[in-house]
Amino acid sequence: MEEREREVLERIERARRRPARLRDEVITLAHGAGGSASRTLVEALFAAELDNPLLAPLADSAVLAAPAGARIATTIDASVVTPLEFPGGDIGSLAVSGTVNDLAMVGARALALTAAFVIEEGFAVERLRRIVASMAAAARVAGVPVAAGDTKVVERGKADGLFIATAGVGAVRDGIELDPAGIRPGDRVLVSGTLGEHGMAIMLARGDLALEAEIVSDAASLGGVVDRVLDACGPAVRCLRDPTRGGLATVLNELARAAGASIALDEAAIPVRPEVAGACELLGIDPLYVANEGKLVAVVAPEAVDAALAALRADPLGARAAVIGEVRAEPPGMVLLETAFGGSRVVDLLVGNPLPRIC
Amino acid sequence: MEEREREVLERIERARRRPARLRDEVITLAHGAGGSASRTLVEALFAAELDNPLLAPLADSAVLAAPAGARIATTIDASVVTPLEFPGGDIGSLAVSGTVNDLAMVGARALALTAAFVIEEGFAVERLRRIVASMAAAARVAGVPVAAGDTKVVERGKADGLFIATAGVGAVRDGIELDPAGIRPGDRVLVSGTLGEHGMAIMLARGDLALEAEIVSDAASLGGVVDRVLDACGPAVRCLRDPTRGGLATVLNELARAAGASIALDEAAIPVRPEVAGACELLGIDPLYVANEGKLVAVVAPEAVDAALAALRADPLGARAAVIGEVRAEPPGMVLLETAFGGSRVVDLLVGNPLPRIC
């Protein structure tokens, strides 16, 4: 080897011995190019914040052991919420809880998450670090590692700051088969708590409403709550859903259609915080259509309703759980709301989009 | 029930009996809201094109049986390629092969993919259908279902047409442990074919270069090729990588660092099509740094090199496979290129980003 070549090697080796340090204040296209800037970003920010043994090899795929014989559940979400940070969370914590909850709703415990970031050139590195740290904290609370990831950078003006896609792999609990086809007339419908907080928190956080109220997003991972309900009721739990985008009304419509049954809701029994009800009324929005990110709907056999309610209420995330309705044979595929005045109205799927980009 | 209520119910029931039909010509915010427009888009476009039993329930999570005792691999990619359609593929087929390949590189056969779409308001529905159909075709070729998905719509100007995140779950083959830490001096480095076609096809497809050449992306799923190599060589295969963003130079640097060894490349043995070499020369880009989306790098024990080469060449996707270098002890962590003129130069990680958004 020539002298010059040896000098080059020594210089590169010295540079490599230094721990990766992210000196940039904003994200540039080079951070998405797969070269040395990408490597620094991944090592000094993503791997540093999300630190766990599955992620450590920084390979494109993570390999994990699944419980023997378990069925595997998988899901993906794109998070495009605006603003990126809001009372009760941010796009990072929201991405984690959304994916953990999608797995929980099929009776699966999350084994690993993966996350892909689409970042707009010029995004502040410190803001990215804050969001990834929040993601890491949410993953720790949910007890699941972020095992692999991908980072892309697009030119200024080609994205809205940051989008995050999160996918998850989980192991479905033995003996649990959550399927709306199993719903029967007489089954009861429960919710784990008050409705509409996430959507209204986002609307208020945008600051373009002439409305002040202290509403905090309910975003949370429901794995522990689901464990309690399934431990208490086993196969008497017909079906679980998280009423996110489109709210309670949308998931109940989906369940009623899939079951070929009707769901009758008792309006007075549906828990809504007064500040959320007030904000909804002022904005002309029905809280039944507003997104939740830390609530679940459970349809359970009638004999299990007390056990399910007690199991939900035993968890801090289910403290305000309530029985809100029951399944009937007629009219099939429909959700009816029985009002406090003795009338009833059809609660249909939403047309249009009163609340864009709430998750 | 009152007469008026009954009429409402009948009208809704009639509407629901009609098969979902997507009448819109462009995507609107309502398609991302979770209500009836979302449902129509999912049923009439995504589920119709990607049609498979795992996806059919249209739940947020899909549940599948994994082979008993298998280790599970998982990965995620965000695709932000521009243009969305290019010679040899589009963002849909690219998203599928990228994820299948990430799984294949850890010795895993893809069991299921999931896909999340971030769509800009105003995107043409027919274009979306074409891309999703291409995704479905690529998934069929790779033998893997798209089992679950998510769709978000952002306002005009807040994304660049379409981004797709794809995640995958695979089962790692028994007895296979692909890990760069297993690389030893004396091991050989193979590539499955000619380099640089994807990146150069994208650059040319952008049309802003004063250069005309017929270069087609090599994007393809490598699951079958990996099966052949692992069948032929088993644990003599130390490590597989797909040289995507950052190209061959980047993955070899990562391997050399992880192995604490040196990789010596024989420049004359590296297969590059003349039209790619010509375009690279005109643009001042080194083909070693240009992305591939249907090629793999294999590091194999010396006794397995002939079997590995034969296995690669037996597959149409590996017809131009070649042995391009070998692993040496010194200098650790470095990649050296031995040129046709007898000299050698360090091939380091790329600084900057000459080829943004090629995947």
Textual characterization of the structure:
Two copies of one chain form a homodimer. By secondary structure, chain A is of the alpha+beta class. Chain A folds into two domains: 24-172, PurM-like, N-terminal domain (60s Ribosomal Protein L30, Chain: A), CATH 3.30.1330; 180-346, Phosphoribosyl-aminoimidazole Synthetase, Chain A, domain 2. Chain A is 32% helix and 23% strand. Chain A has nine helices and 14 strands. A seven-stranded mixed beta sheet of chain A has the order 9-11-8-12-10-13-14. The longest helix of chain A has 18 residues, at 125-142. Chain A is globular and about 90 Å long. At the A-B interface, α1, α2, β1, β2 and β5 of A face α1, α2, β1, β2 and β5 of B.
SS-based class of chain A: alpha+beta
Order of helices and strands of chain A: HHEEEEHEHEEEHHEHEHEHEEE
What's the β-strand tally of chain A? 14
| Oligomeric organization of the protein chains | homodimer
Broad shape of chain A: globular
Helix content of chain A: 25-40%
Strand composition percent of chain A: 15-25%
- What's the name of the CATH homologous superfamily of the largest domain in chain A? PurM-like C-terminal domain
Which protein chains are joined by the largest interface, and how many residues does each one contribute? A-B, 99 and 99 residues
**Annotation field: number of helices of chain A:** 9
Overall tally of domains of chain A:
2
Strand order of the largest sheet of chain A: 9-11-8-12-10-13-14
